[in-house]
Amino acid sequence: MIHITLPDGSVRSYEADVTPMDVAKSISEGFARNVISAKFNGTTIETVTPLTTDGSLVLYTWNDSEGKTAFWHSSAHVLAQAIEELYPGVKLTIGPAIENGFYYDVDFGNISISEKDFKAIEDKMLEIARGKHEFKMRSATKAEALQLYKGNPYKTELIENLEDGTITFCDHATFTDLCRGGHIPNTGIIKAAKVLSVAGAYWRGNENNPQLTRVYGISFPKQKELTEYLELLEEAKKRDHRKLGKELELFTFSQKVGQGLPLWLPKGAALRERLENFLKAAQKKAGYEMVVTPHIGQKELYVTSGHYAKYGADSFQPISTPKDGEEFLLKPMNCPHHCEIYNNSQWSYKDLPKRYAEFGTVYRYEQSGELHGLTRVRGFTQDDAHLFCTPDQLDAEFKNVIDLVLYVFGSLGFENFTAQVSLRDPENPDKYIGSLENWEKAENAIMSATIDKGLNYTVKTGEAAFYGPKLDFMVKDALGRQWQLGTIQVDYNLPERFNLTYKGSDNELHRPVMIHRAPFGSMERFIAILLEHTAGNFPLWLMPTQAIILSISEKYEKYAEKVLNLLENDEIRALVDHRNETIGKKIREAEMQKHPYMIIIGEQEEKENKITVRQHGGEDLGMISIEDFSKIIKTEISKTLKSF
Ligand SMILES: [Zn+2]
Ligand SMILES: [Zn+2]
Q1: Cβ atoms of 101 and 72 closer than 8 Å
Q2: Which residues neighbour 401 within 8 Å (Cβ) at sequence distance 6 or greater?
Q3: pLDDT attached to residue 498
Q4: What pLDDT, in 10s, does the model give residues 71-98?
Q5: 387 C-alpha vs ligand 2 centroid, how far in Å?
Q6: 38 CA to centre of ligand 1 in angstroms
Q7: What is the pLDDT of residues 206-239, one digit of tens each?
Q8: What pLDDT band is residue 410 in, cutting at 50, 70 and 90?
Q9: Which residue from 260, 339, 388, 423 has the least number of CB within 10 angstroms?
Q10: Is 179 annotated as a binding residue?
Q11: Would you say 578 is a known binding-site residue?
Q12: Does the record bear Cell inner membrane in its keywords (predicted)?
């Protein structure tokens, strides 16, 4: 008999060679019908793999991310088979599951694949799926594997890099692929499949290698789920921040300036400025001090910080000067500069904490293929701050930072989030810098702050950086997509490397603890996420224009100007559309521009000294006084933007 421990802690006994599926059936037939993958002692296995030893078993359904991975990994095999049957002679390479679906990189030779071919591939996939073919793993020798892929240089290269004796194949129907395993029981579970797109991809991501065609797909256990997913994709396209950024004239890119270097247009710059001022005001109340540091620093600074050893080779290369041996780096992080600001004075424990904040622009070299709108760029501005405190102050500082992050989320309409706490791996204490005592203090501070603030949280043991534990905020946007926003990170490493000290109450020198924190992360990425979350309908306090004034004809221009002045006196951001266009056209364009309020002005309005107000995409507020309109705006703003 062997003993199998299940996730709820219960232990069940079975004859040796019991399979995960047998275990599932012994729990309940209904549950077993939904089980599609399994992990034994932390390793992904097949649901039909015989278990021969005691151990812990986790069974996954479609509702688990592990289940989805197995589902999409298996679907990639089906996609590959469909492609091979439709296009004999193509060379298959690799095809992993990804966050949403899967892809397969294929050398199609001279054939080019486009959208018109997708339907045939999908039909073929579903035809294969309906055969309910089981996925079966088997071992092969290196010689057998090389024989099977004779003429396919890609698979041959993969096999050459594998140890003989570790090579496995997966068979289903008439198809075989080189594979390490992790499949759903059979193809019949795949009820809906869609080829989403094709793109060029270099073999192994290297520009010097042949270009392949990457075929992206997704599949589901129910047709309904595919339909819903496609609707979501459609909505995501409409909200794509690159599209909205263009329509709302927020930012642009120029090939001449360089890839991944965003140019902020006046409206976008005004938006950033408002966000910055919002955070600056809150930070001021929280006791932060603003600092300013240059965009470059001596290479030596980053050698000291350790950044050069870690990222130097893959980043922008040092800038040399006419002076021999003098080298500077574009700033990849603000932290080393802030450490040197701390070092400018001698501090006593009574002076701490010091909280230095900077909207610091940093530069990181991203591969051109990785660049994406504002979410992956080569130059961006962090809403950075570094807090230097005593170990005993960590608890209070952490709580303050959490308050600030929650204030930011609340003011910007992010309501759905969880906290992710990354702690050290207690089995491997040597992996981490800093004393055990300090780590315990820091981890306790994070945990107690998280619990005290009533956050929904998950704990990731072993996910802490070598230099300290951290708390990340995972935010769900309006389309249910998850983004990591807001990081609070404890650091024992940089204070050591920069020899930061303070004088304690014992008159001895001690090391301060450093906290890195950025509620937005970067202005660029945050604005991209905010655009996609709100579809450009930002909270009213943040909108570039809160009201647009549209006159029915030129006759009422003067009155329009008067209304504008009155609104501006009330600190409402308004504009007059002076163009000689029909009112219908002006309204349509104001809708497109997402102006929250439209003020329509004609004869009646002028006579009664009132305005007619229409809300974006919604209600007609009718003819009201300017004072009442101001009140409406103020009330709406005060609902989202509270004082910190
Ligand atoms: Zn596989
Ligand atoms: Zn930092």
Answers
A1: yes
A2: 387, 488, 515, 517
A3: 96
A4: 999 999 999 999 999 999 999 999 999 9
A5: 9
A6: 14
A7: 889 999 999 999 999 999 999 999 999 999 999 9
A8: very high
A9: 423
A10: no
A11: no
A12: no
Catalytic, 335? Answer: yes
Closest ligand to residue 171's CA:
1
Question: In the beta sheet, which residues pair with residue 491?
Answer: 514
Task: Tell me which residue of 551, 571, 480 sits closest to 229, measured CA to CA.
Answer: 480
d(CA 432, CA 465): 8
Residue owning tokens 């990222």: 311
> Binding residue per annotation — 170?
no
> Which long-range CB contacts under 8 A does 579-584 form with residues at least 24 apart?
580/554, 583/550, 583/552
The verdict on whether 382 is a catalytic residue reads: yes
Under 8 Å CB-to-CB from 385, ≥6 apart: which residues?
A: 283, 288, 355, 356, 357, 358, 516, 517, 518
- Give the Å distance between the CA of 147 and the centre of ligand 1: 19
Please give the C-alpha separations between residue 251 and each of 378, 403, 423, in angstroms, as whole numbers: 15, 31, 38
User: Cα–Cα distances in Å, from 249 out to 159, 429, 568, 619?
Assistant: 51, 51, 22, 26
* Residue 438 confidence (pLDDT) above 90: no
> Does 179 participate in catalysis according to the annotation?
no
Torsion of CA 474, 479, 481, 487, to 10 degrees: -30
pLDDT for 144-178, tens place per residue? Answer: 999 999 999 999 999 999 999 899 999 999 999 99
3-state SS class at 123:
helix
Which ligand has the shortest distance to the CA of 382? 2
Please tell me which residue in 239, 283, 299, 382 is annotated as part of the active site: 382
364 tagged catalytic: yes
Measured CA angle at 117 (ends 113, 121), to 5 deg: 105
Edge-to-edge, what's the strand order for the sheet holding 327-330? 296-298, 327-330, 319-320
* Nearest of 309, 293, 410, 315 to residue 366 by alpha carbon: 315
Distance 335 CA to ligand 2 centre (A): 4
- Residue of 91, 355, 386, 511 marked catalytic: 386
> pLDDT band at 368, cuts 50/70/90?
confident
Give yes or no: 384 in active site: yes
Quick one: CA dihedral 279, 284, 288, 291, positive or negative?
positive
pLDDT band (50, 70, 90) for residue 431? confident
383, 384, 477, 577: the catalytic one is 384
| Amino acid at residue number 515 | I
User: Per-residue pLDDT tens for 454-479?
Assistant: 999 999 999 898 888 999 999 999 88
Strand partners, 5: 11, 56
